[in-house]
What we know:
The protein is 31% helix and 22% strand. The protein is α+β, with helices and mostly antiparallel strands. It has a 3-stranded antiparallel sheet with strand order 1-2-3. Keywords: Guanine-nucleotide releasing factor.
Amino acid sequence: ALPQGSAVLSIPTLLPSKQRPTAGQRRPKDPEAAMSKAEIAMTPLQQWGEEAEGGAIYSIILERVKAEPAASGASSLKEHPDTSECPFVQYRTCKRRTLRAATLPQLVKWLLTANKEGDLNYTSSFLATYQAFATLMQVLELLL
């Protein structure tokens, strides 16, 4: 729970959603048409949960990104020129935090770090909605 007098800024996250049949439609019987567990596990963005920290609530998203080949791999190819490149694609998982709710000072502080944390829509969402819960002078005082 947030302290009394807290502002809440709700920002929708763009995550892949499961396709559900609407009224009158049936689920496909073809197993290739439905998403398998492996396909769900391989989606590039997965909602992981929430965490609270210092008067703010963050939504945690795990992002799967292609890993860059290691520099040591290049030297092993020189040692064994007949060996072809690795046929496997390696991925790494990055944790991204998006601000879900916070006090006004935390909302303004997040303006400075949102892009670095991967919360790319925050700045435009904040600027479009801050007047509903704060004045321009309050925001400017917190920024300076």
